[in-house]
């Protein structure tokens, strides 16, 4: 990435940034972003447009000249709407002054890490994991400590809490939990959430919970449990979220953080110095999404369920593929056995030869090598088309049966 920059400039650039790996998902997507013949399953966004009533709210706000600087922490009306949204879906009473509106989920994670990490502090993270979160820990001077998931031959994914706890050192500051998980679709059992809460309370550790995909669950009634249901207002808990997934607002760049009681001024300060806040007309649209968008979420989840079932059933019949049926999110993570090239090169070949855009498993850390991830937040008919293209390609990759281990 930096080999085209003159050496004199490279020496003056941040060493942390120079050492960051390129995002492999973007590397694949950039090869064919504008190729209409490609079925795009690489990036984590649905194929539906933002609902009309949400767009109309933004246009109305623009027509009213709602384009000035506003509260750094977010409009009071939006923070109140967030409080009511959490009460409605998780039966928790979170006061509006414990919310901070952010520039998408990525900015929410950024400020969460900025708020709690000093140089050299360690954050434990189950892996494979969302690469942006892994890199943000290092950008702010922290140290990412990977704790691999356990993958079984029968397609189950689990996290051994004893292995997680054994990784804690005197430099550990936080444990990062993304449940339901990108890319694996793993969902943390409620009893494990309680056990983790007690462990972190005893040792004074932070839990940073990325709960972006809580509505996207399939094997029972949603939404997925939130750490807000078992932690109090004084617990060391930071919950990050975004408007991107639930309401198809990826390009709007709006999200939020929930923080412990009394940290509002700290997060207001972080907003002031990071972004100066989210555009007011976007925040007006977010209020409408929260208040009027529950039915859209329900419809989108059912649509994802249908596409998930098509892809899981179709790929599971392949002898050289192990499918990990997701308990949540809108991602399908699967292992292709017997590959003679990296998952990145495999993803590029699938793009060229099958015209399907997938994410390489190695984008989510070395633990993801030999895996691929596809986003199924798509029309079920498009899922069938993707399956028709992928199946013969994957079957021809190797004649090797499932290996002895995954």
From TrEMBL:
SUPFAM superfamilies: PLP-dependent transferases. Belongs to the class-I pyridoxal-phosphate-dependent aminotransferase family. The keyword Transferase applies. Keywords: Aminotransferase, Pyridoxal phosphate, Transferase. GO terms for biological process: amino acid metabolic process. Residues 39-390 form the Aminotransferase class I/classII large domain. Its cofactor is pyridoxal 5'-phosphate. GO terms for molecular function: pyridoxal phosphate binding; transaminase activity. It holds the Pfam family Aminotran_1_2. This is Aminotransferase class I/II-fold pyridoxal phosphate-dependent enzyme.
